[in-house]
Amino acid sequence: MSEVDRVPQELTSFVGRTGELAAIGGLLAAGRALTLVGPGGCGKTRLAVRACREQAGAWADGVFWAGLEHEPEDGGVARALAGALDVPLPEGTDPLPALVRALRGRSALIAVDNCEHVLDGAAHVIAGILAECPHVAILATSRATLGIGGQRVWRVPPLDLSDALSLFLERARTTEGTELGAEARAGARRVCDRLDRLPLALELAAGWAGTLSPAQIADSLGDPYAMLDGGARTAAFRQRTLEESMRWSHRLLDEDERVLFRWLGAFEPGFASDAVAGLAALGGPPPGRLLKALRGLIDKSLVVADTAGPVARYRMLGVVRAYARARLDEAGDADAVRDRHLDLYLSLAEGLAPLLDTDKDAWRARAGAEYANIRAAIEWGLSRDDAARGRRLAASMAWLWHLEGRGPEGVRLLRLAAGRGAGERGALQAEVLVAQALVADTALAGGDAYETARTARELAAEAGAPAAGRLAGSLAAIGLLATDLDGAHTAAMAVRDEALEAGDGFVADSSLALAGLVHLLRDEYAEAIACFEPALEGLLRRGDRGVASSSLGWHALAAARSGDLRKAADLAERAVATAEPLRDFHRIGTARGVLAEVRALQGRVEDAADAIAPIDRLVADSGEPVFIPGWERVKALLALGRGRPGQAVEWCRREGRWRAEPKDEHLAPDTRLVLAEALRASGEEAAAAEILDGLAGSPLIGSMPRVRAAVAEQRAVLARAADPERALDLHHEVLRIASAHGLVLCCADSLESLALLALRRGTGKAAGILAGAAERARSEAGAGPGPSTAALRDELAADSGEALDQGRCMELRDAISYAARARGPRRRPDSGWESLTPTERSVVDLAVQGLSNPEIAARLFMSRGTVKTHLAHVYAKLHVANRTELARLATNGPV
């Protein structure tokens, strides 16, 4: 998109203002705000548009336009600017810090139009940008000054007479292009004088040139104050002349035009001609006459037509729309018109619904274009005594809220819709509840979405709403991932079977992708990929970008963990590209997090940081937590990669901030693994051991071999110095688990750890072979160095080249077999005092002295759980049941 394309199109020619444009251009400067101030209709917006177009090329990062006319409150200002800059923002947070970070260092001109109704919010945002972004200039338009330090105020004057005449005559030309004669020009001058040379008033007056001569137009204006209400006389002169111009224009409309004019007051800016024709049901003019009236309103500049797109769209200027709304209320038919407005957009939404199954991108484009009116219709419908239509419309918009980062607003409206149907047991309430669950799935942390989905599924079954029931079932299955992987898989496949039978492509494919995620969590990578590939084919074909981007990310993780990081990187890049058009903070953040994790595994830590930088800048310093699954863990991994374990610990624990009382055991298993590694690297070995003990005792990891292997690997590293025999046992346990499940990187890590142990046991040749085999496994996977790579390189002897080459020739399975052979016979018996490891002997000694488990843990720098585990091993090896029997045996045997 070019700089000019970012600025609104000039649908009519620009007339005059040469001196004003030169002055504005001279005042625009980086780090400063220039505000064009003046009454409504004086031409502030048009002047700003032309000034921006003349500035194209003067700013390295472009010229951007943010119109605030649709923002209902101060809080929308930062998000409006983010939309203009195409910057996704976190949901539910103060967006200003994130917006400032996105702009910092950029050289850009940003125009902020129509600030007057959100003055405080606009001043706050603009001041915040200027304070942190020295290369950004702001050009604002407002009816009042912003009141910020350093603001330059340039009051927009009326047109000079020459420009006013040129504008009126340019707009007053007939459709045949006939030039006006001298008499007409004289009349035009009178019009300019009476309308105080205000551009909007002149354009409104010129709209009547096809009906009246300029002299008649001037005569019709009469006394500009005669028709004003008494209170309005206190307004500024130019505002009074614009009001008079509006009243006069309205008085000269024919009856059909007057009717349509006030009816259009119920519309938000941006509507199509079919909506106008649909107003015929109100009992006024028929569709043909309404369209003719629309053309009349366009000709008289009361409605602006934008014909640049594939379908013409129409809007009223803000001051015109306010006048139309006043006439609507005055006529007493506002409720009937708003009811009809609701019917029109409900019909539109339900007519678009089939696209959800065939082309979600097209559905989003169509529904998104009408969203301002749809939102207004929902609000109106939910306020009525019978809220059914508003509830139906709210339910129909779930995918827009879900996919485009509008989650909080969607959850608010859907909760209101569900509340209006509280106690009902029909299909509509089921549809509202499943819509609420769908939006909350990505907008809110915690399990509320899935509890709502379960309720919706039960209600859908009772009410005979199978489509809502299928989607609810798929969402409810997601909620089982944290507690019951088998249940999640069973539920997902059951819903998939329902969907296939019903021809419900989305639910079938998304449920299959969910089943693939369960396989991924179980480290069943071939099975996971077998689910992802067919699911993605359907999801991408229909434009189901949200679930498709997540599935591509899961596919990338399956490829990475099974040893193909190059393919994983390609899939992760596709996940980002698929999510980006949604401008959904949650989806983009999740996809970029996966890409960063893959880059980190490749050893490309700075590339990993670059992958998340666009989102990282937006979440930094936000006042409230931002929900992106796995985000904190990825940040912790990067901190570890940069040698900052303390930061990694902090990031891991931030994952639990959603809970009232965060605890380490509430963190996801993968996050706890990173936390344990970070604690160990920080010297907190006992705390690391306690985290690992908790993981080992969790019933969930019984079906997660990768986590079991990682726990064993970290326990082995903790035991390496004090108990090398136990470390050796644990590393071989890792190899057993990892080789059985295709965990290539786990195998490589364990081979390197075994190589280190071999060096310290004096078997240098075995160490070299194992190191060479690990190097080959990493190279074939496209992986970077592992946690032991640097230490191993430092300790290998200079003459290890031959052994390294021998290892580099080994396939991974051969290297694992070699490691088992190189281990040699066990040096301890399986039972008796000689079977105890040095650490176990230390535990026995302290236990016999009467120390409690916590006291032993403190003395030996380990967790209480580790002490308990060691004692269990001791009891088994010595065939005793408790401390009493241990103490008795110790009096007769060596300790």
TrEMBL record:
This protein's source sits in the domain of life called Bacteria
For this protein, the record's SUPFAM superfamilies field holds: C-terminal effector domain of the bipartite response regulators, P-loop containing nucleoside triphosphate hydrolases, TPR-like
- Residues forming the HTH luxR-type domain are 829-894
Coiled-coil positions are: none
Q: Name one Pfam family in it.
A: GerE
Q: What InterPro entries does this protein's entry cite? A: HTH_77, P-loop_NTPase, Sig_transdc_resp-reg_C-effctor, TPR-like_helical_dom_sf, Tscrpt_reg_LuxR_C, WH-like_DNA-bd_sf
Protein's name in the database: LuxR C-terminal-related transcriptional regulator
**What is the species listed in this Swiss-Prot or TrEMBL entry?**
Actinomadura rugatobispora
- Recite the lineage of the species: Bacteria, Bacillati, Actinomycetota, Actinomycetes, Streptosporangiales
